[in-house]
Structure formats: structure tokens, C-alpha cells
Amino acid sequence: MSTMKNLFRAREMPVFLALVLVVAIAGIANPAFLSAAGAIDILLGVAIVAILAVGQTFVIVMRHIDLSVGSLIGFTSFLIGDLYAQGYGLWGGLAAALGVGLIVGAANGFLVAYLKLPSLVVTLGALYIVRGIFNDYAFGRTITAAMVPPEVAWIGLNRLGGIPYLFLIGLSLVIVSGLVMRRVRAARDLYAIGSNPAAAELAGIPVARRVFGAFVLNGAITGLAGAVMLGRFNAANANSGIALELIVIAACVVGGVTIAGGSGSVWGAFLGAILLQAITRTIGALGIPQFWQQAFNGGLIILAIAFDKYLNSRVKTTTIMGSHND
Amino acid sequence: MVLSSSAEGRPVLEMAHVAKSFGGVRALVDASLTLYAGEAHALLGENGAGKSTLLKTLAGVHKADAGDITLKGKAFVQGSTKDSIEQGIAVIYQEPSLFPDLTLAENVFIGRQLTSNGLVDWAAMERESRELFSRLGVTLDPHQKARGISIADQQIVEIAKALSTDASVIVMDEPTAALSSKEVERLFTVVRNLREQGSAVVFVSHRLDEVFALCDRMTVMRDGSTVGSALIPETSETEVVRLMVGREVSELFPKLPPKIGDVVLEVKNLSLEGQFSDISFEVRAGEIFALAGLVGSGRSEVIRAIFGIDRYDSGSVILNGNALPAGKPAASMAAGVALVPEDRRQQGLFMASSVARNVAVTLLKKLSSWILLRKKREEETAGQWAETLQLKFASLADPVERLSGGNQQKVVLSKWLATEPRVLIVDEPTRGIDVGTKSEVHRLLSQKAQQGMAVVMVSSELPEVLGMADRIFVMREGTHMGTLDRDEADPEKIITLATGGVVTR
Hints:
heterodimer, A: 326 residues, mainly alpha, ABC transporter involved in vitamin B12 uptake, BtuC, two-stranded antiparallel sheet, 14 helices, 76% helix, B: 505 residues, alpha/beta, 6-stranded mixed β-sheet, 24 strands, globular
């Protein structure tokens, strides 16, 4: 029973309800939206953002941010195809993607955790550096369907029980990370760091090590997610992944992962990703011009922040009034 | 005073001859503290005596430069908060250090969450913290988030945390400063229980009545050194005050004979709920008027209200017979009031800007022609002030953050003196600056007063107050406790008023 109560009190609940509302509106306006094909479309579109949102959640709950993920995933998706075409095989490409992800994550993490540089600036720099290296490496080349490892292409195309594999990969990452974020001590430290950085030091939490670790983990997830992106589009070029980091951060914020750190969950970020995707499709289904979609999503982000602010202020006023009773 | 040896058994903690410097500032010179199991031990001293530094050494925030620390017969491992916690030290800081987004249960066990099979066991943490809360005699919901709970409840959570680590030494740094009398009582009950269970509790407080009601023993620090330690029943408030003040008011401060003129500033029945109430005083031209009291007594809040940074609920501020509008710093400045804030890094300076820009910033109107700021004029004005104040810097174009604390303070002062105010309000004018610069600042204030400026000074340093002020207005917990003239003021009278006693004249 208390599980049910907690479920309804959870920060993720409003996001879920918004999602149901959006789907209902779209379904009434355009029944084709509710069809299996429509749903699969959403699930396919959501997989990449959902995976990156999981990694980003580890970073944002610490009151940090990682803007480099769009450049990084673009680069590794290109790399996996390119190395396969050069005969290094699928595993060679995946190993390289993981390696690049770890290096970028470690560089970000080192600068933020140990040199105490602001993550916004560090990862903004990384965004351009990785994109620059990527452009130089790609040098006008593109990865075509023939260069995509067949296993990757197969996973991008096929389904299990009607659900796309790509979505299932994202979902399993969410399930595992959700458990980790809730039940593993080191992950709980990330919340503490974001909630009150000074107190985290005083409580004996190894703050620098945790911040470094979270950036490395996000880099690794993003690097490997290059395979998912390659499977999804069956192609890659020097523009792959541009501006993706903004959609990822939007998904987190809409899903209740507060930019101020300390709260939010991977489930929230996951729902946020689905909600944004569903809105995009809904706008299509309602016949509203596509360019309104971005304005809608922007409004939603601001709404999410205002909602968090409202929740926090409500908590404060109740207790301030409660403490005047002496 | 000799360390009393009547306590039972071996001490749980012995800190002997601890020294610690930050840059050139010696925060601890020769500090010692001995704690026995099952005692509540008061650590006393004026602001800046080194209590916090000593306790932070114990907490693992600082590492001592010299001295021996022995905990339960073993050498104490210093320098990491984690090590300190693991060795049984729990510190409850003045600033709450809970995690607002985490539940109370997790706050209790943060960094050491209970696990089963390697996974965090939420049910066990909630069960145990509920048990701890009820042992402490409070009903708090372990499932609740820490955001927004009262300071008193935050302390209870911190104490529960200390209990859960089986801490042998529990340090409370001014725990009662923000509590109501009911909450203080509850805290005392908790401390007495802790003592009975064998913990050593270090209790830092400026309220001597509390110390005498609660503690078994006390240690007094002054200027970074321990100057005495005694059993509470064997000492008296007078004795403690004498130890705390100790030093003589030196001739460091060249106070010039004042030329007192007409009333310039009048404060009438100023009140702000929860901060201060019914504050009235007059300051005359040429007078240095000190607001004395302990940290948190409401002095800074009063001057912020006078200047217009904060609003006030009732009362009025009158300058030269005209009422100053409430809550308008710009109007106060235009009328001739200047405020030099206490926290100069945060409020007084643009740290990354040049010395010249900082000095001239209050004069932008005067120095501008049409809408462009005249850079040359800016540098000329700044140069004049730098000379008057004997500022030490490489170039006027240097960013202020590169200057020493003392020189930064002089830049703040020049910035405001450059506006030629009628009333200069200074909050802790010499905090954290070296002795040489201190007396220069004092000379300057004294000179300006003699030239007819009215100076309102907030200071926590008794020698400064006694050396500089013509009249001393003592506050405690937001109320006026008494005003002392220069001739009748002495350290004992001020401390007694500030800690809530009655002065016998």
C-alpha cells in the first residue's frame, strides 16, 4: 500500500500523467497515432535520447552538466562504422568507441573534479574539441549502410515481441541504472554532492573521486551508445549528433532531474525523453506545423523548472509556519 | 590557572600545544583541550580566539602544523573528514550541513548507508533512524526530506548521526545560537543524556548562563592559545570573563581627541521581526559610535536596515532632520550615508576589477562626462586615495583579488570615503587584517571623525571598540542592553551586557 502511495507522491508522477494526456489527445485527434506503428515509431526515436539521459542524470544530480555528449556519440557512431569498414570488425569498433568515451569522460572529469573548473565551460569546450577532431577524422566522408556492422544493423531493424531492440537496450539500461541510483552507496553519494557540496566534504564523502567517476561513466555510456545511433540511422557523417546534448538535457529537466542537483531519477529522465518524443509526434499527428514542436518543448522545459520551484517553495512555507509555534 | 585533575580516569581526547597558520595569519598558537568521557565541556573565547579552527582540526577539515592529538590513548589521524568520523569524532556545525534533497534517514547514515548484500537497505535505515530519533525524544519522520525542517530539528538529525557512529566525542559549535528557549531546553536534555551514555560533548556557546547551567568543565581560549581550564563549580562568570578578555587595551589605536558637533543621524524605535526590536540612538558629528555585542546579536542587521539594504517593520531613520526612505540604499547614499560591509569579498569589492575601478565605482556620476566614464579621471582619483591610505599594490590596474586582505579593506574604505559621506557606517572594519594595517584603518577613521564625519562602527573586537569609540551601544539578541560612555566602559562591562548579565555601576 505504501508503495502505491509513494508511487503517486513521486516526482515522476506528473511527467507520467502529462505523457498519458499527450498520448490521449493525439489518439483522439488522430487514431493512427495509437496504432502499433505509431507507438513503435516513438519507441525507436526515444532510444538514443533515453540512453544519453541516463548518463546525463548521473552528472546532473551532482549539480554538474555534460554538454559534450552530442559530439561524442556522433564521433563514436562514425568510428564504429569506419573501423568495421577497415576490417577491425564489430568488436574493434566497439572497443574504440568505449575507449574514446572513457578518454573524453576522464578529461572532463579530471578538469571538473580535481581542477575545480566549472563543468558547463569544460564540457562546452569538449563539445567543440571532440567535434573538431571528429570533423578532421571524417573529412567529408560518410558511413553508408554497407559500412555498418551487420549485427548493429540487425539490432536497429528488428524487434522482440513487437518492441524494437534499440528501445529494449535503453529500457534495460534504465532499469539497471535505476536500481544502482537507488541502492548503491557510491551512487547515493552523487545525490549528496549535488544537494549540498560543502556538507558532502564534511560528511567524509570522496567528492572529487565521485565527480570524476560519474563523468567517466557518462563518457563510457555515450561512447557505446554510438552503436545504438549507428543502428538507428544505418549511416553517419560529420554532422551526426549535433545539438543532441540539448535534447538530452531537456529530457532530464522535463523528467524532474533538477539542474540544481540533488534530486531526480533515471526513470524521470526516461519518461522525460518519451514525453518530448511523444509531443513531437503529436504535433505531427494534429497537423500543427513542425516548427511549433521546438517552441512547445521549450515551454515544457520552463514549465518543469517552475513546477520544481513551486514544489520546493511549498515545502519551505509549510515548515516555516510550523516552526513559529514556540 | 592549573588544569584540574579531579576528573575520573584517563582523558578520552588530549589536544596539546596545537598550532595552525593560514598564510601569515596564526589562527592557533598554543591550543590545548582535554576531554573526559561523560562530560559536557564548554569551549569559550571571544570571536576569533581560535575555537573554530581548533574544532575544525579535530573534524579533519584542517591539519595542525604542530602539536599532539591523542584520542583514546592512540595518536589521532588528522587531515580528512572521513578519518575523523571513523575515529569517533562527530561535529555539529553552526551552519547546518544536512542534505535538503535526501530523507532524514539517509542524512543520518550518509556515507555509511546500511546495506544488505551490498545494496542500500532503506527499510533498515528508516527503522534505525526512527529508533535514534525516539531515543532523542523527538518524533521526526525518517521518510521526510530534510528540506525546510527547523534548525533545532536539523541539529537533532546531526546528533542522531553522531549516535549512529558511536561517536566518543561530539562537538557542538554554538548550537543554541538560533534556537528558541523551548528548543534549547530540549537540546540540553539531549546533551545530558549523551553525557550519561559516556560521550564527551564539547559545547561552544557565547551564552555564559547556558554554559554554567549545562557544562561540567570549561576551557578558555584567547588569541589562538588556551589560557585556562577549570571545573565549572570551581569558577565563576566573572573569572571566565576575565580570562576571555585577558589582554590589555593597547595603545595601538591613535584615537584623536573628538570634536563632537550636532546630531547627524537619529535612529528611532527601529524594529524588524525576528532580527531586532526597538533600537534607538543618536550619533553626532565627529563622534565614533560603536555597536557592540556578540556575533548574531543583530548589530549588522540594524546597520543594514539604516542604510536601506533591508527593510524594517517600524521606526524611522533621520539624517540631518530629514527622514531617510526605508529600503533605498541609493537614497541613503545620495543623502550622505556610506556603508562599508563586513564581507568585503562578497559585498564590498569587484574582485576581478582593477584597484582604480573599485575606488572610483561609487563616483561614477562625478567622473563621467556625458555618458562615458573618463578613465583618466578615474585613475587620478584612485591614485590620490591610494596615497592617503598607503595602499600597497603594483599598479592601479591590478585586480583587487591580488591584494592582501588588509589592502582590500583599505580599497573598500577609500571607495566609500571618496564619496565624502556625512555618516560612515563600518561593519567589522579590521576583521582578518594584520596589526599594522589595523592601526592605519583606525587612524583614518579617527581622522575622518575629527574632520566632522559621524562614524558608526560595528565591531566584535573589544580592544577596537574600547580604543576607538566615544560611546558604546551594546546589543544582545536584537535588543539594546545598555550604552556605555568612553570613560566608564571596560571589557567586563561590555561582555556582561552582551552575554545578558547586569552591570553594576
